[in-house]
Design a protein that fits this description.
By secondary structure, this protein is α+β, with helices and mostly antiparallel strands. It has seven helices and eleven strands. α2 runs parallel beside α5 and α4 packs antiparallel against α5.
């Protein structure tokens, strides 16, 4: 069964290792399991056989799928919560704007030249930039195409944007754009947001209100933490103009001007990738096997709990209520043991750049030594 939100966990365990006479409602992938583990390994066969009948089989298959998805989501949330006891986020997520909506005058850029913004980032494994809205500050009502390039000069996106003269015009993008902040074959990440002048001029909006701060307080590619610029530990931003497309591999410092652009962004790190990014290796990685067992235990426990509480299943009298209750508690206990083992044996700093270790004082505050 697909976990959808976390595709890395697709088919980490299967639903049912076997067959049944009734096919009603049975998903086509009910017996797919990359780990070789199934929910049905833990639940007594006669219980499942009694439930998977033609009258109510579809609802039971649905319940198995739902509880498996819940177990995956619980595992990800609980494992990251446990990680935070001994670790902390290396960079705080940022949600908000980049670039000022205020201006004092029009810029003077030669018609036909290119202008825009450069955005540069250190390599951050599992880091991402999401762009939700892009604002324009131009001296004419017009439409333009804003092209997003990566450092190699590859076109990633072409966006049709509109501007109203002398007004900060915010364009909500049809879909959120997500850009990675890591490439194994580069030494830093850079994106270019480029448009061509066509009879209009941009306003002189800055990166933020203090026009001298960008150069006097922050060095290009320093990525220092700043309360005034909370995104600065993730990215540097600077403007550019050029007679033709910009030099995509230049490390020259960007200007303080946003060249009439503003951005509504999100900067963050995919903390769930500490445990799984692309695929799980159940043969060579003992932690992957442990994750499969943990999710199997919790899936079965959640399934049984819902069976015992459901008023819709008519075969309750056929189920050993006390035995199933005891089994659920046992599986939850084993799940807790397994998830603690996984967290204790995960080297977060070797896997991605989301976390860093807390010092002893911080660990006392969050209760790890209490």
């Amino acid at each position: 069964m697909s976990s959808l939100q976390f595709p890395c966990f697709d088919y980490i365990i299967g639903l049912y290792n076997g067959d049944c006479d009734c096919l009603t409602g049975r998903p086509s992938d009910y017996n797919e399991s990359d780990s070789g583990l199934y929910m049905s390994d833990l639940i007594e066969p006669k219980v499942l056989d009694g439930l998977l009948n033609c009258d109510q089989g579809a609802s039971v298959w649905e319940l198995m799928s739902v509880t498996q998805a819940q177990a995956i989501n619980y595992f990800i949330a609980e494992s990251n919560t446990l990680l935070m006891k001994a670790n902390k986020l290396k960079r705080l997520p940022y949600y908000g704007g980049v670039g000022m909506s205020t201006f004092t005058k029009d810029l003077t850029i030669t018609n036909g030249y290119y202008a825009g913004v450069r955005l540069i980032s250190p390599l951050i494994r599992s880091g991402y930039l999401k762009i939700k809205k892009i604002g324009l500050l131009l001296n004419q009502t017009t439409a333009l195409n804003l092209v997003i390039y990566d450092r190699t000069g590859t076109v990633l996106h072409t966006l049709a944007l509109n501007a109203t003269a002398n007004v900060h015009t915010v364009n909500t993008l049809p879909a959120v754009i997500t850009l990675p902040l890591y490439d194994a074959y580069l030494d830093y990440i850079e994106y270019f947001f480029v448009y061509q002048l066509a009879g209009f001029e941009p306003k002189n909006n800055g990166i933020y209100s203090c026009s001298a701060c960008q150069k006097s307080h922050f060095g290009w590619m320093d990525f220092e933490h700043s309360h005034k610029l909370p995104w600065h530990s993730w990215i540097n931003v600077g403007g550019f103009t050029s007679n033709g497309l910009p030099d995509f591999d230049s490390t020259a410092q960007g200007t303080e001007s946003m060249n009439g652009l503003t951005f509504d962004i999100e900067l963050g790190c995919k903390v769930e990738e500490v445990f799984c990014k692309d695929a799980l290796d159940f043969q060579g990685n003992y932690l992957a096997r442990a994750m499969a067992i943990a999710i199997q235990m919790l899936s079965a426990a959640l399934f049984v709990d819902k069976i015992l509480l459901s008023p819709n299943l008519n075969r309750m009298q056929m189920i050993n209520h006390e035995q199933l209750t005891a089994s659920s508690l046992e599986w939850k206990g084993k799940y807790a043991e397994m998830i603690n083992f996984i967290v204790d044996n995960t080297d977060v700093e070797a896997i991605n750049d989301c976390y860093e270790c807390r010092d002893v004082v911080e660990m006392i505050k969050v209760g790890i030594f209490s």
